[in-house]
Amino acid sequence: MLLKSELHFAPRRSFHDAWAFILLLLFSGTFTGIGIARIYSISLDKSKTNGLVNELIKGLGFNLAISMVLNMMMFCLYSVAPKLVIYTSLFLMPLCCLILGFVVDQRGMIATAGLSLFLSVLVWLYIRGHIDIIAQLFSTTSSMLNSHIFALLFNFLLLIVLNGTIGVCMAFSFGEKEDIGNAIGTALIFSIFWINSFFMYLFDVFTAGIITGELLKKTSSERDDREASVAGRALGNMAYAMGSVAFGALIIAVIKTLRYLVNSKRQRSVRSDEQPGAFEMVILCMADCTLSLVESYVHVLNKFTFSYLAITGDSYRKAINDSFELLSKKENVAFKSFVAAEYTQNFLFMIQTILIVGLNIGYVVFRKKSDPVVIAAIFGGVLSILLTFQFCNVMSSGTLALSYLQIMAPQNVKNYDINLHKALATIQHGKNYDVVSYEQTNVESTERVE
């Protein structure tokens, strides 16, 4: 690593881990082609199809408008009242789980609410000493993202349309239901998991690129950085990172496929006429729990890695090592802000999902419950929930990127938001930290300039 006090974008990046991206194209392209061929072989009533398409357009427009309004409100809350968001999430998450548990399944409502309360207490104990700093980090991150909200929305719509189109085409390649359990069916499931994870992490890279580009546009001493398009440069860096993202998504896809196979085995054992052995069920349950923990660990690893990778342009394996090595060298709130962001995101996603479902029920009732309207509401609602889920996730990627930038380029962060810089630098250098003396002596922040 090179050590400098100010960060600049690398003039040229390399496309790392190309093999993973090529392999992803081969898997997804093969099944997508099979699915398209089967779609064209299906005969459809054109009059019914046209009516359904019209309703789908209306339903999608309605749900996109809902998502836009809700996510704008979410960003405004993070910008204006981040501490309110944090405390509300900690206190109201158990109550929401209790209400949802009562509505969905009365038998599990107490256990669900109790677990949520336990998690809320753990999160509060973990972040309580730095809630003010985390709130300031949330506020700055949301303000930076808010200034490029339309670029974020356009990019995600593009990715979700590609993901949805490819996913639908791949789903049609399933063929008969009994084919799902064979090797080809397993490969198809693996490909769907891979492509979905790829697009999800790709948006994380774009989000971190927006944060980095906005910071450099306002603070860099280089003319090229100040005059560059933030969204355009983030899009270009995202394209260069596709190979590394495909590599990280591959690991998650393998774990998810193994979980799918284990759960399929459990379901077949329960449904079969022969009663499954207790030992077999215990082994399958333990395997599922272990894979679930490994999946969560790798997912968190990927979130940190891709936020760092968006700044440096490194390969996936190098970014894993360097990102955690960088965090281990200096005291920071990256882990605590990530935990707080994930928890608040889950709470806001739960609230927004309830609102989306309720508004779509009202939409169906208002449109008199015809079959095309119901289908359009379901499809549009699912798309809206997916959009909301990913938009809720941008806060964790954004705060991680800003945490890395504080360590790698404190001078840029200071020039952008001196209050945030002071708060984060106080953690790194102690309560006796002085901005003036730091400016004169600090040469220890890292920067990738390859």
TrEMBL record:
It comes from the Eukaryota. The chain crosses the membrane at residues 20-40, 60-80, 86-104, 109-127, 147-172, 184-203, 238-258, 347-366, 373-391. InterPro entries: Choline_transptr-like (IPR007603). It is a multi-pass membrane protein. It is found in: Cell membrane; Membrane. Keywords: Membrane, Transmembrane, Transmembrane helix. Its main location: membrane. GO terms for molecular function: transmembrane transporter activity. One of its GO terms (cellular component) is plasma membrane. Probably involved in transport through the plasma membrane. PANTHER family: CHOLINE TRANSPORTER-LIKE (SLC FAMILY 44) (PTHR12385), PROTEIN PNS1 (PTHR12385:SF4). Belongs to the CTL (choline transporter-like) family. This is Protein PNS1. It comes from Enterospora canceri.
